[in-house]
UniProtKB/TrEMBL annotation:
Pfam family, one: Thymidylate_kin
Entry's Gene Ontology cellular component terms: cytosol
Organism of origin: Corynebacterium casei UCMA 3821
A single BP term in Gene Ontology: dTTP biosynthetic process
EC number: 2.7.4.9
Family: Belongs to the thymidylate kinase family.
Record's keyword terms, sorted: ATP-binding, Kinase, Nucleotide biosynthesis, Nucleotide-binding, Transferase
Top-level taxon of the source organism: Bacteria
Molecular function terms from GO: ATP binding; dTMP kinase activity
CDD domains documented for this protein: TMPK (cd01672)
Secretion signal, residue range per the UniProt entry: none
Residues of the Thymidylate kinase-like domain: 5-159
Protein name as it appears in the record: Thymidylate kinase
Taxonomic lineage of the native organism: Bacteria, Bacillati, Actinomycetota, Actinomycetes, Mycobacteriales
């Protein structure tokens, strides 16, 4: 099965993923999006986010398409995981595209476009559970800044530098979770609640 961890930059997604791996008694795989190390589409998006692709970032639809094509590149792995008794945890998935795009455009109708693109035209599997790690926006911003200061390779990109975008994205995630967009959601910053729900889902 597939579980997706969602949240704004600095929310603690990777920490939660590793915590879940340690708490569960079943085989757990992890896949993080964007796949900057192996996907040309993710690499192009990253170049754009650091100002090296001209005006590409000015189009929310163009950026969303690059991120969607990155996930499409892992389609076979995702489909295999969806039919497997093992668990694949995703650090970001399709909802990330929906939330950031809606925040950038101030228009939730783009969420339907993302849904149709990724789950429809590209045929990606829906996750069995989506977890919105609802970390306070200011706390997440402080973490992202601290991470950037301590590690030169983690310099903030254009999205991470935009505090208003991060706040709007957090609000968009909240609306996605409230509507159970593309399936079941949990929205909380409480790791204990998250772990309990994941254990129930996997039958532990």
């Amino acid at each position: 099965m597939i579980i997706a961890i969602e949240g704004i930059d600095g929310a603690g997604k990777n920490t939660l993923v590793q915590h879940l791996r340690g708490e569960l008694d079943i085989p757990v795989g992890v896949l993080a999006f964007p796949r900057y190390e192996e996907s040309i589409h993710a690499q192009l998006a990253q170049e754009a986010l650091y100002g090296r692709m001209g005006d590409l970032t000015s189009s929310a639809y163009a950026m969303a398409t690059l991120f969607a094509l990155d996930r499409h590149g892992a389609k076979e792995q995702l489909l295999a995981a969806a039919d497997s008794p093992e668990l694949l945890i995703l650090d970001r998935y399709v909802a990330s595209n929906a939330a950031y795009s809606a925040a950038r455009l101030a228009d939730d109708s783009v969420m339907d476009w993302v849904f149709d693109l990724e789950f429809g035209r590209l045929g990606l599997p829906k996750p069995q559970l989506q977890i919105y790690l609802a970390t306070d926006v200011e706390v997440a911003a402080d973490r992202a800044s601290s991470r950037s200061a301590q590690d030169a390779s983690r310099e903030k990109d254009e999205y991470e530098k935009d505090g208003n975008l991060q706040a709007a994205t957090a609000a968009a995630y909240g609306r996605l979770a409230e509507s159970n967009w593309a399936g079941q959601w949990i929205a909380t910053a409480d790791k204990g609640i998250i772990i309990d729900n994941v254990r129930k889902l996997v039958g532990e």
